[in-house]
Amino acid sequence: MPTDSPQASIFDRHLAARQKLAVDLLAGAITKGRLANAYLLTGRIADDKWQLAKQMAAFFNCERTREYWLKPEAPQNLLGLAVDEEVFSKPTFSMPEDRSCLSKSLSGDPVNMCRDCRWIQEDAHPECLYKLGPSGTTASRKISVESARQMTETLARTSSAFRIVIVEDAAQDVFHRPSANALLKTLEEPPEHTMFFLFAENAEAVLPTVVSRSQIVPVPQIPFSDGEPPEMPSLSFYKALKESGSKRPRAYLSALDFSQAVLKAADSLVDEDENVREAISKVVDYVLKEEYERLKQRAMESLTESKYLADLLELGEEVKARVDHYVNTKAALESFSIAWARLAQKAGVLDS
Question: Core-most of 134, 196, 241, 277, by most CB within 10 Å?
C-alpha cells in the first residue's frame, strides 16, 4: 500500500492489510466527504474494532494530522463543517503529509508520541475517547438508561477535541431499547466533531432503529487476501446471476454452476503435493474481493449495500472454515453459492 494513500495516512500498515475492507470504507468516506455520524462494526474480532476506532480518533486529534479537519476547506459536512457543492465536485481530498503518532508507532516506525496519541493508546484520553457500556457497579449486562443520558449530556458540552464514542456491545440484549431510545437523537444528530462506533457480531443482533442510523462496516474474522491466485480463470458471481435473469430457480441453478466453477478453478491451482482446500479458500477470497470492488463505492453511502457486503463476508468466513474442517467441499460450495444468491436478491444488488 503506498505510503501516501488515505488508508496509510489513517491506519497502521498491519491493520490496513488485515482489515482492507473496513479501512477502505472508512478512509474512502473521509476523502469523499461522506463520513457518517455512526459506524456499526460487525464481526468477532474485538481488537481490530478497537484499533479502527482508536486510530480514527488519533487521526483527528494527533498534532501531526488534526489540521485536516480544522482547515476551512476540509470536506466533512457531517462533522459540523460547512461544505458546498464545489467541494463535493472534487474527486478526492488531500490527506495530511504526515501520519498520526499512533499509526506510526503501531506500524513499527520510530516516533515521539504526542500527548493526545499517548492518551488514546492508553485508553485514557479525557476528551476525545468515550466508552458506553454496562456499569461495573451492577450485575446487569445492560447499558443503563442513565448512562445513555449522561453520555448525551457530556457530548452536549463544547470541546476542542474531535470526539469518538464507542458502544462496546451494541447488541440489543445489552444496548436495549430504553437505553437506545435515550441516545437515538444524539446518534442521528450528534454535536459537531463527534462520531459513534458501535460494536456487534452482526447487524441482526442490533435494534433496527440503531442499525438504520448507522453505516455498517464489516470486520471479518478471516479477511480475504490481496493476493490474486495465479492463472485464475475469469469468475464473476454477479455476471453469473445477472445473466440468469430474475427468476429464482434459474438464479439458483446459476449459483450451483458457479460453485462448480469455483471448485474447478481451485483444482487448476494445485498439483499433487498441494492442498486443494487452501486453493478453495484462495478462490473464495478472489470472488469475494471482486464483488467488494464492484460495490465498495456505493457501500460508502448505502446502508443496504454495506450490510450486504458485511453479510457476504460472514458467508465467506463460514465456507472457508467449513472447508478447512474437512466438510464435503462440493456441498459446502453449493450451500455458499445458493446463500449468496439469496442474499444478493434480497439486497437488490443485481439490478445495476
Answer: 196
Q: Kindly state the cell numbers that stand for 20.
A: 482492507
Domain boundary among 218, 252, 269: 218
Helix (H, G, I), strand (E, B) or coil at 160: coil
Q: pLDDT (tens digit, 9 = 90+) per residue, 288-315? A: 888 888 888 788 777 788 888 888 888 8
Q: Are residues 41 and 136 in the same domain?
A: yes
Q: Is residue 223 one of the residues assigned to a domain?
A: no
- For the chain, the domain total comes to 2
Angle at 117 between CA 60 and CA 219, to 5 degrees: 65
85/132 same-domain check: yes
Categorise residue 194: left if φ over 0, alpha if ψ from -120 to 50, beta otherwise.
beta
Largest CA distance in the chain: 66
Asked if 197 contacts 226 with a C-beta cutoff of 8 angstroms, the reply is no
Please report whether residue 1 resides in a domain: no
Lowest mean pLDDT among 1-15, 50-64, 117-131, 208-222: 1-15
Q: How far apart are CA 273 and CA 276, in angstroms?
A: 9
Residues 196 and 250 in one domain: no
Range of the domain at 192: 6-218
Same-domain check for residues 156 and 281: no
Cα gap 26→287, rounded to integer Å? 22
pLDDT at 301: 75
Distance CA 289, CA 223 (A): 10
Cell of 181: 431510545
Residue 352 lies in a domain: no
Give ∠ CA 342-346-352 in degrees, rounded to 5.
Answer: 105
Distance between CA atoms of residues 302 and 221, nearest Å: 23
CA distance 129 to 104: 19
199 and 293 fall within a common domain: no
Instruction: Kindly state whether residues 178 and 87 are assigned to the same domain.
Output: yes
Range of lowest pLDDT (4-8, 52-56, 193-197, 210-214): 4-8
- Among 44, 14, 12, smallest CA distance to 121 is for 12
